[in-house]
Design brief:
With 335 residues, the chain is of the alpha+beta class. It has eight helices and 14 strands. α1 packs across α2 and α4 (204-217) packs across α8 (314-333).
């Protein structure tokens, strides 16, 4: 049986780690100009030089800052899946109390060109070994990693069953202040932002067609009075924030399903570390679920593919869910 842990302590530690990564990124960006270079290709994703900035310092942070009384297994993008990372260093996984999944820099492709903020994402679950899933996460944190022209960085966190908390910080002075965010309460999609992720060439046209079919099924015409906008934010954490902040009403990432429809075996997908902070949204009343419905339950690893749908409120979810399920079922039957 999983051992209990101090949720508030872990929340504060993860916020501290996110702040540490943010500060380190700001410092390195001022010193280096090669952050967009490819460092290596690992089993889950391309690793750029900017990713290595976080990889190098995280182990050191855990060694210096993570309490020995809370033994933890860390699962992280950029770490070989065959490698076991635990703290205190060398402790057996069976003796750890927490399983922590991290994406140190989610949104690498935007931040490495200084185009758009990235996000530090983390989720902590009671240790259940290989059976631990995203659904087990009880503490989640997301911290904004700002572009060079930003003075403000937002941080959000949640403990299961206790709602979510948000604050912003001045990255130049360190001053922090409370933040109030509210998801959209709109009852339709007209004149709002709503879209499916199609960042990369593979599956782009099929995903766009699926999205268009959904709007038609929902009764939206091509008339100018029923405009729906999109904003392809290449960061799951960033997408989560846009819905939580009330900017976007629906976002879907169905890349694994679309690639299956097209018979593509390889492709860039969302992984469990990308949705590590999903608890923050659900504690705020946002609906995060599988495309066919049901809570996300992917294992806490770095290789599993994850499809998801995000709805700003239950009313929007109830409209879309049955029609999307039908479209996906019909498409998959043709395989």
């Amino acid at each position: 049986m999983p051992v209990a842990f101090n949720h508030e302590q872990v929340r504060q530690l993860l916020l501290e780690l996110g702040g540490f990564i943010r500060q380190r990124l700001i410092e390195v960006r001022a010193e280096r100009s090669d952050l967009a270079m490819v460092a290596r290709q690992d089993v889950a994703d391309t690793i750029y030089e900017i990713d290595r900035v976080s990889e190098v310092v995280i182990a050191r942070w855990f060694e210096q800052s993570w309490p020995a009384g809370v033994p933890v297994e860390v699962v992280m993008e950029g770490v070989d899946p065959a490698q076991t990372l635990t703290f205190p260093a060398g402790i057996g996984v069976g003796r750890t109390r927490l399983k922590l999944i991290l994406d140190p820099i989610d949104g690498t492709r935007g931040i490495m060109y200084d185009k758009r903020p990235a996000w530090f994402l983390a989720g902590a679950a009671p240790q259940k070994g290989a059976d631990t899933t995203v659904a087990d996460i009880e503490v989640a944190v997301m911290v904004e990693l700002p572009t060079s022209k930003q003075w403000r960085s937002d941080a959000l966190s949640a403990i299961r069953g206790r709602g979510y908390q948000a604050h912003a910080a001045n990255v130049f002075t360190g001053e922090a202040f409370p933040l109030s965010l509210r998801p959209s309460q709109a009852t339709d999609f007209r004149h709002g932002f709503a879209y499916f992720s199609r960042f990369f060439p593979a599956g782009k046209a099929r995903t766009a067609q699926l999205e268009e079919d959904l709007w038609v099924a929902l009764g939206y015409s091509h008339g100018k009075e029923e405009v729906i906008f999109e904003d392809q934010y290449i960061s799951t954490g960033g997408q989560f924030y846009e819905v939580l902040a009330g900017h976007d009403r629906l976002i879907g990432d169905v890349r694994p399903l679309v690639h299956e429809m097209l018979g593509l075996k390889d492709g860039l997908h969302c992984h469990p570390y990308d949705v590590a902070a999903g608890l923050v949204l659900t504690e705020a009343g946002v609906i995060l679920e599988k495309p066919f419905g049901g809570a996300l339950d992917a294992p806490l690893d770095t290789t599993s593919s994850v499809s998801w749908m995000l709805y700003a409120n239950p009313h929007l979810a109830e409209q879309v869910r049955p029609r999307l399920r039908k479209l996906l079922e019909e498409a998959l039957k043709k395989l």
